[in-house]
Amino acid sequence: MSNRRITLLGGSGFVGSQLTYRLAQTYDEVVVLTRRAQHVRSLRTLSNVHVREVNVHDAAALNEAIAGSTAVINLIGILNEGGNKSKNSFASAHSGLTEKVLAACAAAGVQRYLHMGALNADAENGSSEYLRTKGQAEELVRNSQSSVDWTIFQPSIIFGEHDAFFNRFAGLLRALPIFPLAVPDAKMAPVFVGDVCQVMIDSIDDPAAISSTIKLCGPKDYTLRELVQYTADTAGLSRTIIGLPDWASRMQARVMEYVPGKPFSRDNYQSLQTPSVCGDNCPRQPTSLDAVVPRYIGTKDWTGLLQKRRAAARR
Asked: Model's pTM, two decimal places?
Protein backbone atom coordinates (compact mmCIF):
# COMPACT_ATOMS: atom_id res chain seq x y z
CA MET A 1 0.00 0.00 0.00
CA SER A 2 2.50 2.59 -1.11
CA ASN A 3 1.94 6.34 -0.94
CA ARG A 4 -1.35 6.09 0.93
CA ARG A 5 -2.29 8.80 3.41
CA ILE A 6 -5.00 8.50 6.05
CA THR A 7 -6.22 11.73 7.65
CA LEU A 8 -7.99 11.64 11.03
CA LEU A 9 -10.19 14.23 12.66
CA GLY A 10 -10.35 13.50 16.36
CA GLY A 11 -7.16 11.44 16.19
CA SER A 12 -5.90 12.77 19.51
CA GLY A 13 -8.78 11.33 21.56
CA PHE A 14 -9.22 7.97 23.27
CA VAL A 15 -10.30 6.05 20.17
CA GLY A 16 -8.30 8.23 17.79
CA SER A 17 -4.93 7.67 19.44
CA GLN A 18 -5.45 3.90 19.45
CA LEU A 19 -6.54 3.98 15.82
CA THR A 20 -3.57 6.15 14.83
CA TYR A 21 -1.03 3.70 16.26
CA ARG A 22 -2.63 0.81 14.37
CA LEU A 23 -2.96 2.69 11.09
CA ALA A 24 0.70 3.68 11.30
CA GLN A 25 1.64 0.01 11.09
CA THR A 26 -0.02 -0.33 7.68
CA TYR A 27 -0.14 3.00 5.89
CA ASP A 28 2.68 5.21 4.65
CA GLU A 29 1.40 8.39 6.27
CA VAL A 30 -1.14 9.11 8.98
CA VAL A 31 -2.10 12.75 9.48
CA VAL A 32 -3.80 13.77 12.73
CA LEU A 33 -5.66 17.09 12.70
CA THR A 34 -5.96 18.72 16.11
CA ARG A 35 -6.53 22.13 17.65
CA ARG A 36 -3.61 21.76 20.07
CA ALA A 37 -0.60 19.84 18.82
CA GLN A 38 1.08 19.81 22.23
CA HIS A 39 -1.68 17.54 23.54
CA VAL A 40 -0.58 14.69 21.27
CA ARG A 41 3.17 14.62 21.73
CA SER A 42 3.17 10.82 22.16
CA LEU A 43 1.94 10.32 18.59
CA ARG A 44 4.99 12.14 17.24
CA THR A 45 7.23 9.23 18.23
CA LEU A 46 5.97 7.43 15.12
CA SER A 47 7.95 8.50 12.07
CA ASN A 48 5.02 8.25 9.65
CA VAL A 49 2.51 10.06 11.88
CA HIS A 50 2.23 13.81 11.31
CA VAL A 51 0.29 16.04 13.67
CA ARG A 52 -1.14 19.20 12.13
CA GLU A 53 -2.62 22.02 14.18
CA VAL A 54 -5.81 22.91 12.32
CA ASN A 55 -9.14 24.46 13.19
CA VAL A 56 -11.32 21.83 11.50
CA HIS A 57 -14.33 24.15 11.65
CA ASP A 58 -12.52 26.54 9.29
CA ALA A 59 -13.62 25.28 5.86
CA ALA A 60 -10.62 26.67 3.99
CA ALA A 61 -8.11 25.23 6.49
CA LEU A 62 -9.92 21.90 6.44
CA ASN A 63 -9.89 21.75 2.64
CA GLU A 64 -6.15 22.34 2.61
CA ALA A 65 -5.48 19.76 5.34
CA ILE A 66 -7.50 17.01 3.65
CA ALA A 67 -6.02 17.50 0.17
CA GLY A 68 -3.98 14.49 -0.94
CA SER A 69 -5.65 12.02 1.42
CA THR A 70 -6.51 8.51 0.33
CA ALA A 71 -9.08 8.23 3.10
CA VAL A 72 -10.52 10.52 5.78
CA ILE A 73 -11.77 9.32 9.16
CA ASN A 74 -14.02 11.58 11.23
CA LEU A 75 -14.12 10.59 14.91
CA ILE A 76 -15.17 13.94 16.35
CA GLY A 77 -18.09 14.00 18.75
CA ILE A 78 -19.02 15.61 22.06
CA LEU A 79 -21.13 14.23 24.90
CA ASN A 80 -21.97 17.65 26.35
CA GLU A 81 -22.23 21.15 24.96
CA GLY A 82 -19.80 23.82 26.10
CA GLY A 83 -20.72 27.15 27.64
CA ASN A 84 -20.44 28.91 24.27
CA LYS A 85 -23.08 27.02 22.31
CA SER A 86 -22.40 28.92 19.10
CA LYS A 87 -18.97 27.25 18.98
CA ASN A 88 -19.40 24.14 21.14
CA SER A 89 -22.90 22.92 20.30
CA PHE A 90 -23.97 19.40 19.37
CA ALA A 91 -25.09 20.71 15.98
CA SER A 92 -21.73 22.34 15.26
CA ALA A 93 -19.65 19.35 16.40
CA HIS A 94 -21.77 16.72 14.67
CA SER A 95 -23.86 17.78 11.67
CA GLY A 96 -22.13 21.11 11.05
CA LEU A 97 -18.64 19.65 10.97
CA THR A 98 -19.73 16.61 8.96
CA GLU A 99 -21.11 18.89 6.25
CA LYS A 100 -17.75 20.68 6.03
CA VAL A 101 -15.78 17.42 5.95
CA LEU A 102 -17.91 15.98 3.16
CA ALA A 103 -17.48 19.17 1.15
CA ALA A 104 -13.71 19.06 1.69
CA CYS A 105 -13.58 15.40 0.60
CA ALA A 106 -15.52 16.24 -2.56
CA ALA A 107 -13.26 19.19 -3.35
CA ALA A 108 -10.10 17.14 -2.82
CA GLY A 109 -11.36 14.05 -4.65
CA VAL A 110 -11.03 11.83 -1.55
CA GLN A 111 -12.35 8.38 -2.40
CA ARG A 112 -12.93 6.90 1.08
CA TYR A 113 -14.68 8.36 4.13
CA LEU A 114 -15.20 6.67 7.51
CA HIS A 115 -17.63 8.29 9.93
CA MET A 116 -18.05 7.66 13.66
CA GLY A 117 -21.74 7.87 14.46
CA ALA A 118 -23.62 6.60 17.50
CA LEU A 119 -25.70 3.52 18.21
CA ASN A 120 -29.40 4.28 17.72
CA ALA A 121 -28.77 7.82 16.52
CA ASP A 122 -31.96 9.21 14.98
CA ALA A 123 -32.24 12.59 13.28
CA GLU A 124 -35.98 12.88 13.93
CA ASN A 125 -36.82 10.77 16.95
CA GLY A 126 -33.62 10.60 18.97
CA SER A 127 -34.27 10.83 22.71
CA SER A 128 -31.57 13.50 23.19
CA GLU A 129 -29.99 16.34 21.27
CA TYR A 130 -26.82 14.24 21.15
CA LEU A 131 -28.58 11.37 19.39
CA ARG A 132 -30.56 13.69 17.09
CA THR A 133 -27.50 15.63 15.89
CA LYS A 134 -25.52 12.41 15.51
CA GLY A 135 -28.41 11.12 13.41
CA GLN A 136 -28.44 14.31 11.33
CA ALA A 137 -24.72 13.90 10.66
CA GLU A 138 -25.25 10.30 9.55
CA GLU A 139 -28.04 11.36 7.22
CA LEU A 140 -25.72 13.91 5.63
CA VAL A 141 -23.23 11.12 4.94
CA ARG A 142 -25.84 8.75 3.50
CA ASN A 143 -27.37 11.46 1.30
CA SER A 144 -24.08 12.94 0.10
CA GLN A 145 -24.08 13.68 -3.62
CA SER A 146 -20.30 13.34 -3.88
CA SER A 147 -18.57 10.23 -5.22
CA VAL A 148 -16.92 9.42 -1.88
CA ASP A 149 -17.34 5.82 -0.67
CA TRP A 150 -18.56 6.04 2.93
CA THR A 151 -18.99 3.76 5.91
CA ILE A 152 -20.70 4.69 9.18
CA PHE A 153 -19.82 3.07 12.52
CA GLN A 154 -22.28 3.02 15.42
CA PRO A 155 -20.62 1.87 18.66
CA SER A 156 -22.10 1.34 22.08
CA ILE A 157 -19.99 2.51 25.06
CA ILE A 158 -16.31 2.02 24.14
CA PHE A 159 -13.97 0.75 26.85
CA GLY A 160 -10.22 0.29 27.22
CA GLU A 161 -7.31 1.80 29.11
CA HIS A 162 -7.79 5.58 29.49
CA ASP A 163 -11.53 5.31 28.69
CA ALA A 164 -13.96 7.87 30.09
CA PHE A 165 -16.40 5.26 31.37
CA PHE A 166 -14.88 2.72 33.76
CA ASN A 167 -12.11 5.09 34.84
CA ARG A 168 -14.62 7.81 35.72
CA PHE A 169 -16.89 5.48 37.67
CA ALA A 170 -13.89 3.99 39.47
CA GLY A 171 -12.84 7.48 40.56
CA LEU A 172 -16.34 8.37 41.74
CA LEU A 173 -16.73 5.09 43.62
CA ARG A 174 -13.44 5.63 45.44
CA ALA A 175 -14.75 8.98 46.65
CA LEU A 176 -18.31 7.94 47.56
CA PRO A 177 -19.04 5.01 49.92
CA ILE A 178 -22.73 5.37 49.03
CA PHE A 179 -23.25 5.89 45.32
CA PRO A 180 -26.53 7.38 44.01
CA LEU A 181 -26.88 6.09 40.44
CA ALA A 182 -29.16 7.78 37.93
CA VAL A 183 -31.02 5.70 35.32
CA PRO A 184 -29.73 2.41 36.78
CA ASP A 185 -31.66 0.24 34.32
CA ALA A 186 -30.21 1.89 31.18
CA LYS A 187 -28.87 -0.80 28.87
CA MET A 188 -25.58 -0.88 26.97
CA ALA A 189 -23.19 -3.34 25.36
CA PRO A 190 -19.62 -2.11 26.04
CA VAL A 191 -17.27 -2.72 23.13
CA PHE A 192 -13.46 -2.88 23.36
CA VAL A 193 -11.57 -0.06 21.66
CA GLY A 194 -9.21 -2.54 20.01
CA ASP A 195 -12.13 -4.32 18.36
CA VAL A 196 -13.57 -1.00 17.17
CA CYS A 197 -10.25 0.02 15.64
CA GLN A 198 -9.78 -3.31 13.89
CA VAL A 199 -13.24 -3.21 12.31
CA MET A 200 -12.59 0.31 11.07
CA ILE A 201 -9.20 -0.55 9.59
CA ASP A 202 -10.52 -3.70 7.92
CA SER A 203 -13.33 -1.71 6.31
CA ILE A 204 -11.07 0.75 4.49
CA ASP A 205 -10.29 -1.63 1.65
CA ASP A 206 -13.38 -3.84 1.96
CA PRO A 207 -15.84 -3.25 -0.91
CA ALA A 208 -18.62 -4.83 1.17
CA ALA A 209 -18.27 -2.07 3.77
CA ILE A 210 -18.98 0.72 1.30
CA SER A 211 -22.35 2.44 1.90
CA SER A 212 -22.81 0.36 5.06
CA THR A 213 -23.72 1.25 8.62
CA ILE A 214 -21.86 -1.04 11.02
CA LYS A 215 -23.14 -1.44 14.57
CA LEU A 216 -20.47 -2.21 17.17
CA CYS A 217 -21.41 -3.99 20.40
CA GLY A 218 -19.47 -6.16 22.80
CA PRO A 219 -20.38 -9.79 23.55
CA LYS A 220 -22.87 -9.05 26.36
CA ASP A 221 -25.56 -6.54 27.31
CA TYR A 222 -25.58 -4.96 30.78
CA THR A 223 -27.62 -2.52 32.80
CA LEU A 224 -25.79 0.57 34.05
CA ARG A 225 -26.22 -0.72 37.61
CA GLU A 226 -24.47 -3.98 36.66
CA LEU A 227 -21.58 -2.07 35.08
CA VAL A 228 -21.10 0.20 38.09
CA GLN A 229 -21.22 -2.80 40.43
CA TYR A 230 -18.69 -4.56 38.19
CA THR A 231 -16.45 -1.51 38.43
CA ALA A 232 -16.65 -1.51 42.23
CA ASP A 233 -15.96 -5.24 42.47
CA THR A 234 -13.04 -5.09 40.03
CA ALA A 235 -11.51 -2.14 41.85
CA GLY A 236 -11.84 -3.97 45.18
CA LEU A 237 -14.32 -1.44 46.58
CA SER A 238 -17.20 -2.33 48.89
CA ARG A 239 -19.83 0.22 47.98
CA THR A 240 -23.58 0.64 48.37
CA ILE A 241 -25.08 1.51 44.99
CA ILE A 242 -28.53 3.08 45.19
CA GLY A 243 -30.51 3.15 41.96
CA LEU A 244 -32.41 6.43 41.77
CA PRO A 245 -36.04 6.63 40.63
CA ASP A 246 -36.76 8.60 37.50
CA TRP A 247 -37.65 11.88 39.25
CA ALA A 248 -34.42 11.78 41.27
CA SER A 249 -32.39 10.89 38.17
CA ARG A 250 -33.74 13.96 36.41
CA MET A 251 -33.00 16.12 39.42
CA GLN A 252 -29.44 14.80 39.63
CA ALA A 253 -28.93 15.60 35.96
CA ARG A 254 -30.25 19.13 36.42
CA VAL A 255 -27.84 19.76 39.31
CA MET A 256 -24.76 17.96 37.95
CA GLU A 257 -24.70 19.77 34.62
CA TYR A 258 -23.65 22.89 36.54
CA VAL A 259 -20.76 21.10 38.26
CA PRO A 260 -17.33 21.81 36.69
CA GLY A 261 -16.62 19.20 34.05
CA LYS A 262 -20.36 18.51 33.70
CA PRO A 263 -20.19 14.84 34.82
CA PHE A 264 -23.90 14.30 34.10
CA SER A 265 -26.39 16.48 32.22
CA ARG A 266 -30.03 16.51 31.24
CA ASP A 267 -29.05 15.54 27.71
CA ASN A 268 -27.03 12.60 29.10
CA TYR A 269 -30.14 11.57 31.02
CA GLN A 270 -32.19 11.73 27.83
CA SER A 271 -29.60 9.67 25.94
CA LEU A 272 -29.82 6.94 28.57
CA GLN A 273 -33.54 6.54 27.82
CA THR A 274 -32.53 4.81 24.57
CA PRO A 275 -30.88 1.39 25.02
CA SER A 276 -27.35 1.39 23.59
CA VAL A 277 -27.48 -2.24 22.49
CA CYS A 278 -27.52 -4.16 19.20
CA GLY A 279 -30.28 -6.35 17.84
CA ASP A 280 -30.31 -10.14 18.00
CA ASN A 281 -29.01 -10.52 14.44
CA CYS A 282 -26.12 -8.08 14.84
CA PRO A 283 -22.62 -9.63 14.94
CA ARG A 284 -20.92 -9.01 18.30
CA GLN A 285 -17.30 -8.06 18.88
CA PRO A 286 -15.38 -10.71 20.83
CA THR A 287 -13.46 -9.00 23.65
CA SER A 288 -15.09 -9.22 27.08
CA LEU A 289 -14.82 -6.83 30.01
CA ASP A 290 -12.93 -9.42 32.05
CA ALA A 291 -10.21 -9.65 29.41
CA VAL A 292 -9.33 -5.96 29.67
CA VAL A 293 -10.88 -3.89 32.47
CA PRO A 294 -9.07 -5.55 35.44
CA ARG A 295 -5.77 -4.50 33.87
CA TYR A 296 -6.44 -0.82 34.42
CA ILE A 297 -8.81 -0.58 37.38
CA GLY A 298 -8.28 -3.94 39.07
CA THR A 299 -6.42 -4.61 42.32
CA LYS A 300 -5.58 -8.25 41.66
CA ASP A 301 -4.07 -7.97 38.21
CA TRP A 302 -0.32 -7.61 38.75
CA THR A 303 0.38 -6.66 35.14
CA GLY A 304 -2.06 -3.80 35.47
CA LEU A 305 -0.53 -2.68 38.75
CA LEU A 306 2.94 -2.70 37.21
CA GLN A 307 1.70 -0.60 34.29
CA LYS A 308 0.18 1.92 36.70
CA ARG A 309 3.39 2.15 38.74
CA ARG A 310 5.50 2.66 35.62
CA ALA A 311 3.14 5.39 34.43
CA ALA A 312 3.28 7.06 37.85
CA ALA A 313 7.07 6.97 37.72
CA ARG A 314 6.94 8.26 34.11
CA ARG A 315 9.02 5.34 32.89
From this structure: 0.91
